[in-house]
Design goal:
Length: 215
């Protein structure tokens, strides 16, 4: 008997889409939709998340919240906020986005305008399948300082330097916690449940922080 893996997301590509056409599509499609859009150089990707994708996204969001609590950092969760920059004609809707360092600057904002507001400090892309557009170029052009990519097995951390992303081993937001260990906890939820694993994750984060202060 042949078994096939359950797909985590679907991706559709539209080519030769002008920036103005894309902006019109954004308005017509509205916010009440499940799919997420990314635009770069005339290419529009439409990604529709399925259960494995969304579960991983939500779990990582919980873990980011725990990290902020344990580091005593404020956070504004911006979800799949539509990030557009007219001056570079690039846009994306990440799986999750967070204001942490710049939280106080957008705390009371109901709408974010990247012409006057800072971009999120951290964005997450869950990519069980290979994206059809280069998200790193999009987020670098928008100016997002920290970019996480999770492919179902590995979490990679990127830091923006001189307009390009460099992969780093430790998150600049949460040193010295080894956030690249998060996939291990995602797997543990399948055996122990989400609440039990969240408690285990919090205990692990506290231990990491305590160990660093003793050094």
């Amino acid at each position: 008997m042949v078994t096939t893996a359950t797909p985590a997301e679907t991706r559709t590509i539209l080519s030769n889409i002008s920036w103005q056409t894309f902006k019109t599509m954004l308005m017509e499609m509205g916010q009440e939709r499940k799919n997420r859009l990314a635009y770069d150089n005339g290419i529009l990707e439409i990604m529709t998340p399925l259960m494995p994708h969304e579960n991983s996204n939500r779990l990582i969001e919980v873990f980011v919240g725990v990290l902020c609590e344990e580091f005593d950092l404020e956070i504004k969760r911006a979800g799949s906020l539509t990030l557009t920059r007219d001056n570079v004609e690039r846009a994306s809707e990440p799986d999750s986005s967070y204001y942490i360092q710049n939280e106080s600057l957008v705390r009371d904002r109901e709408n974010i305008d990247l012409a006057i507001d800072p971009p999120p400090d951290l964005v997450l892309e869950v990519e069980y399948s290979k994206p059809k557009v280069d998200k790193s170029k999009i987020y670098a052009a928008i100016g997002v300082p920290e970019f996480w990519r999770y492919n179902g097995n590995v979490l990679r951390i990127y830091r923006l330097r001189d307009g390009e992303y460099t992969e780093v081993q430790t998150s600049p937001t949460f040193p010295p916690v080894q956030v690249k260990e998060i996939p291990r906890f995602i797997q543990e939820t399948k055996k122990n449940g989400e609440m039990a694993t969240t408690r285990a994750f919090r205990a692990w984060v506290k231990q990491q922080i305590a160990s660093s202060t003793k050094q």
